[in-house]
Amino acid sequence: MRILNIVTQKGGTGKSETVKNLAFGLAKKGLKTLVVDLDPQANTSSTILKLHESISKETLDEMIQTFINDKPDNPTGLEGIDILHRFMKKKIDGYDVSDVLLQPTLINEAIQHTKYINLDILPASSNLIETDMKLKTSCMKSDTRLDIALQKVEDKYDVCIIDNSPIINGVTINGVTACKNEGDLIIIPIKIDAGSLEGVDITLQQMLEILSYSDFLEFDFKLLFTMRNRTVVEADVEKTLRTLFPDRCFNTPIRYQSKPVVTASNERKILLEGRCKSGVAQDYKQLVDEIFESINPN
Ligand SMILES: Nc1ncnc2c1ncn2[C@@H]1O[C@H](COP(=O)(O)OP(=O)(O)OP(=O)(O)O)[C@@H](O)[C@H]1O
Ligand SMILES: [Mg+2]
Fold this sequence. Notes:
This protein is of the alpha/beta class. It has helices at residues 15-28, 43-49, 57-70, 78-88, 97-102, 107-110, 128-136, 145-151, 170-178, 196-212, 232-244, 258-266, 279-295; strands at 2-6, 33-38, 112-113, 119-122, 159-164, 185-191, 221-226. It has a seven-stranded mixed β-sheet with strand order 3-4-2-5-1-6-7, with helices on both faces. Helix 10 (196-212) links the parallel strand 6 (185-191) and strand 7. The radius of gyration is 20 Å and the shape is globular. Bound molecules: adenosine-5'-triphosphate and magnesium ion.
């Protein structure tokens, strides 16, 4: 099983979009694919498992009604925090990845099949918010729990794709340390904007730090240009990164094209699930081909 871990400490760079489309595309090509969602926002889990109640009209109406029913004379804001949390709290039936990080033997029970052929998911929930703290206070192999869990299912899958939150913490470190075998890859998506070079720098430094206290990791990474516009500045930054990191940048950049991405999201679909006429869908298809060829050279 090859592990592709999409990670960067910079938010909103297309990590989840990339995870969903890569997973869908590689599964469609016949690879048994497991997605691991390590983001408490659980957007990838919601899309893949079709769990979008949180923004359904009924849920929003119910939230307003609950607030009206509970409303104290002088609302302080705490009531809103409480109601939002009650409604956003985990919608996953059964175990999720936070349970597996605390008890790796639960992995088989926590993995869910999806409506997509060849595509399973170890879903996230907001419970992950507390998992980092729980890992910190646990002394038993807290950095390698995901690795231990994934070893139990490695014969069932060809590829495992990990989505991350934009914060590098104990949960993220579990994803990085799981990427330890030859052929596993850390993919750093880069949306070129004012903070993008700092984002790449910090992410790579953090990866090196994780490596420095591990004596078994084979660290391999590649940069992926996402949400790319055709500006001169972007072309210059991309050229610089391609020069500094030869052979460590995917050939295919993903263009910025909001309409198809937003439409797919509003329809609760993965972009590549649709007719794929748009440029951004074509880019993702090409990226899937590029990665498929590197995984399956024959
Ligand atoms: N190529 C694209 N063109 C236009 N919009 C995009 C593209 N890729 C992603 N988006 C949109 O940009 C936003 C951020 O994308 P996404 O959620 O994939 O980023 P992320 O890195 O996972 O964010 P986070 O750090 O919060 O997890 C989303 O609203 C998504 O729909
Ligand atoms: Mg995300």
